[in-house]
Amino acid sequence: MSRIIAFFFVLTLVWACSSDSEAEATVVVDPVEEVSFERSALLINWADNIIVPSYEAFSTDLEMLTASFNSFKEDASEENLVNLRSSWVNAYSTWQHIAMFEIGPAETVGFQLNMNIYPTDSDKIDQFIASGSYDLSLSSNRSAKGFPALDYLLYGIGENDAAILALYNSDEKDSLLTYTEDVLLDMKSLTDAVLSDWKEGYRDTFVSNDGASSTASVDRMVNDYIFYYEKYLRAGKMGIPLGVFSGSTLPQNVEAYYEGTISDDLFLEGLNAVQDFFNGKHYNTGTEGESLATYLNALNTLKEGEDLSALINAQLNTARAKVQDLTAFRDEIENNDPPTAMLLTYDEVQKAIPMLKVDMVSAMSISIDFVDADGD
After folding, report:
1. Which strands make up the sheet holding 301-303, listed edge to edge?
2. Distance between CA 51 and CA 71 in Å, rounded?
C-alpha cells in the first residue's frame, strides 16, 4: 500500500508542475539498498561553509561600499564617483550569493524584499529627496531603497556623468547625499541583524532541526532554494523583462536598469550561486561538502537512465553558456524585436525547474510549499 501511495504522490507532483515542462521521464530511486544519508551533515555544510561565510563576505563588501560613499560625500569628484560605483557593483555581485537564503533571520526581516526590489520607484525617490520626509522601514517604501535605489542615485538622476556630478555638487546636494546615506544605513542595519542572528543562535537552531518534515530545515531550505531559482532568477531577472508573462517586453524591469551593462553579469552570479549550493561548494573556494547533489547520489536517483544530479548540473551549465553568449539584458531587449536569443536562453534556464521542482523533491520526499501563480 505504501508503494501505491508513493506512486500517486509522484503523479500528483508531476501534474501540479506540468506548466513548468512537457511530460517528464520517470525518476527512479534504487530500492535495493537502504539509504543512509545524514541530513545533519548537509545542514552543517550549508550553515558553516556556505551561508554564514556568504553573509560575512557581503557584510564586508557593504562596509566597503559605505566607505566609498563617505569619500564621495566629502568630495563628489569624478574619481570618487567611479570608486563608489565600483563598490556598488562588487556588493551587488556578492548579494547574488545570499539572495536565496530567505530563511530564518532573513525571512523575519524580509531581507530580499527590502534589499532588491526592482524596478525602483524613481518618482518616489525624487519626492523623498525633495521633501526630506520618509520612513524607509515601511513596507510601502521598499521600491525606493536597496540596490535598485542606489542604481538610480548613482546612474539615473542625470542624463550623463557630468549632470549627475553637478547635482551632487549643487544646492540640492545635502538632501541628495542624506537620502543616499539613509539607503545605505538601512541596508547595513538589515544585514547586521541577519548576520548577527545567524552567528548568535540561529545557526544552531538551523542545524539541529535535521528531521524529515515540512518544517525541518532541509525541507524549508530546498523550498526556498527552488523558489529563488524559479521566481527571482528565472522570472525576475529574465522572464518578466522579456515579457514572458505579460506578452510585451519590459526593459525597464531589468536588474540594474540605469547602470545598463551588468544585468547579465548579475544573473550569472546568481546562477553560479545556485549551482554552487546544489553541489555543496564552500563559499569562494573549490572545496565541496555534503549537498543536494550528494543527497541525490546517495539515493541513486536516475532519470532516463542517467544520474539526476549530473543532469541538473549539465542543464545549469547549458543555461550558463547561453547567457554568456548574450549582451546585457537591457541591450538584448531594447535592440532586438523580438529578443530571440534571450528568449531561447530563457528556455534553457526554464528546463532546470522540473528537474528541481519535480524530480529532485520527489526523490527526497520533500513537498513543495509554494504555489506557482505566474502563469508559466
Report:
1. 27-29, 301-303, 306-307
2. 31
Contact assessment for residue 217 and residue 210, using Cβ atoms and an 8 Å cutoff: yes
Are 27 and 67 contacting, i.e. CB atoms less than 8 angstroms apart? no
Distance CA 233, CA 329 (A): 13
328 backbone dihedrals φ, ψ, rounded to 5° = -55, 145
Cα(318)–Cα(219) distance, rounded to whole angstroms?
27
DSSP string, 5-33: HHHHHHHHHHHHTGGGSSPPPPEEE--SS
Residue type, 196: S
pTM: 0.91
The torsion angles phi and psi of 135, rounded to 5 degrees, stand at: -135, 100
pLDDT along the chain (376 residues), means of 10: 36 37 49 69 98 98 98 98 98 98 97 98 98 98 98 98 98 97 98 98 98 96 98 98 97 98 98 98 95 97 95 98 98 98 98 98 95 56
Bridge partner list, 306:
303
Instruction: Please tell me the distance from the alpha carbon of residue 256 to that of residue 266, in angstroms, as a whole number.
Output: 9
Phi, psi dihedrals of residue 128, rounded to the nearest 5° = -65, -40
For residue 279, which phi and psi values (nearest 5 degrees)?
-95, 5
DSSP code string of 127-183: HHHHH----TTSGGGGGGSHHHHHHIIIIISSSSHHHHHHHHTSTTHHHHHHHHHHH
DSSP assignment of 70-87: HHHHH---HHHHHHHHHH
Of 94, 342, 374, the C-alpha closest to 241 is 342
Q: What is the Cα–Cα distance from 14 to 17, expressed in whole angstroms? A: 5
CB atoms under 10 Å from CB of 310, counted, come to 14
